[in-house]
Amino acid sequence: MSEKQVKKDEEKEALNLFLSTQTIIKEALRKLGYPGDMYELMKEPQRMLTVRIPVKMDNGSVKVYTGYRSQHNDAVGPTKGGVRFHPEVSEEEVKALSIWMTLKCGIANLPYGGGKGGIICDPRTMSFGELERLSRGYVRAISQIVGPTKDIPAPDVYTNSQIMAWMMDEYSRLREFDSPGFITGKPIVLGGSQGRETATAQGVTICIEEAVKKKGIKLQNARIIIQGFGNAGSFLAKFMHDAGAKVIGISDAHGGLYNPDGLDIPYLLDKRDSFGMVTNLFTDAITNEELLEKDCDILVPAAIANQITAKNAHHIQASIVVEAANGPTTIDATKILNERGVLLVPDILASAGGVTVSYFEWVQNNQGYYWPEKEVAKKLRNVMVNSFETIYQTAAAHKVDMRLAAYMTGIRKSAEASRFRGWV
Ligand code: GLU
Fold first, then answer.
1. Which of 326, 350, 374 is the last residue of a domain?
2. Which of 108, 100, 84, 104 is nearest to 45 (CA)?
3. 304: Cβ–Cβ under 8 A, 6 or more apart, which residues?
4. Residue 397 domain-assigned?
5. Closest Cα to residue 348, out of 137, 97, 141?
6. Do both 115 and 203 map to the same domain?
């Protein structure tokens, strides 16, 4: 396939993601009894900034990167959401992801609306210095519309606590006062929260614990396949292994490893590189597509979007699918899985742990008083268990699937806030 064709397919995928998000938002608002005007407000972000960031490269040349920051709805409070560094970032994708952040914050009952940012770049090919200059350039470019009480960035795909530290430092210099509350996911010494790094995986773990209870399965010895070995996937593999579950499959961008007797997770975690790559060290790796269809009890897509589609949904053998990635299952595939009685825990619920602990981080920054890890873990568990139960009950009460129930739960707070403010 030519490079142009690949780019076109990626653009189409991002557009589909955005359109399917709009479709479910429309249905959720209709089910909640809101007039069409509310959908008109919610179907697009309120604000979308596109920036061009010149960066001096190590070889002396200048490269100009394109970045975005999207703010979906700020009726509840400041907007909140990560910044991703990835070659496939697009305007449509960032827009869709910012809407999902509104939903995640609504589900976890946080005082935020949704935001998201992204830069089209490939951090795997960039030096530390180039990444630092790009991160600082991005903050300078978007500084007018972000801030601790406006819009609070965080890590996302291929961004980490070091990048958050550079961004926080740049913002603090611009404003001429220390501003830890400008960004979350920072290193602990710069005001980061205990438990933030593992928060997404912790949230997914709690969803798995709740889901197995509903299905009458024991987590001990349950067979789990995890697609993706990045921040969420790798910590999740560790937590599942520690809980006595059998992790029988994992994968990364290169391929998958499968062993029905269980994989040596501590060894794989040790060998994994900083971009989550490990399967390239093995000669018996299978493809990601093959891995998804292997026999297991719980399947966790923790990598990228559109992995479970109408093409393979009939072949998924798991009885529980927990979406740790954003948008891994298409609308058609969701329908098929539901008809087949698979319990599908949707992305906006399962991956809400990250932003929840980000909120705790921001609260700690604002009060200048820091909590021990145990307290963070307890508070996160409360939020996740309540969110899971609310959505499970909403699905039963309205006779809808968990995804629509999650959208209904997630959009309600922003819709109510918009109504009280007199916007609709
Ligand atoms: N990027 C993460 C997400 O998509 C975390 C966002 C945050 O912590 O604000 O949920």
1. 350
2. 100
3. 228, 325, 328
4. no
5. 97
6. no
Q: Identify the bridge partners of residue 308 per DSSP, sorted by sequence position.
A: 329
Q: Is the CB of 184 under 6 A from ligand 1?
A: yes
Question: Domain of 333: which CATH number?
Answer: 3.40.50.720
Q: With a 6 A CB cut-off, is 80 part of the ligand 1 pocket?
A: yes
Distance of CA 150 to the CA centre of its chain: 21
Best mutation site among 93, 146, 156, 197 for ligand 1, i.e. most ligand atoms within 8 A of its Cβ? 156
**35 and 67 belong to one structural domain:** yes
Residue 346 CA, ligand 1 centroid: distance in Å: 15
Binned at pLDDT 50, 70 and 90, residue 3 comes out as: low
Choosing from 80, 95, 104, 116, which is the catalytic residue?
116
Q: What is the pTM of this model?
A: 0.95
107: CA distance to ligand 1 center in Å? 13
**7 pLDDT exceeds 90?**
no
Q: How far is the CA of 220 from the centre of ligand 1 (A)?
A: 29
Any atom of ligand 1 within 6 Å of the Cβ of 354: yes
Owning domain of residue 155: 3-178
Both 113 and 227 in a single domain?
no
Q: Could you confirm whether 116 is annotated as catalytic?
A: yes
Is the domain of 130 the same as that of 161?
yes
Residue 331 within a domain: yes
- Hey, is 395 helix, strand or coil? helix
Q: CA 395, CA 247: separation in Å to the nearest integer?
A: 29
Within 10 angstroms of residue 1's Cβ, the number of other Cβ atoms is: 7
pLDDT in tens, 75-103: 999 999 999 999 999 999 999 999 999 99
Q: Are residues 136 and 240 in the same domain?
A: no
CA of residue 326 to ligand 1 center, whole Å? 10
| Mean pLDDT value across residues 22-32 | 97
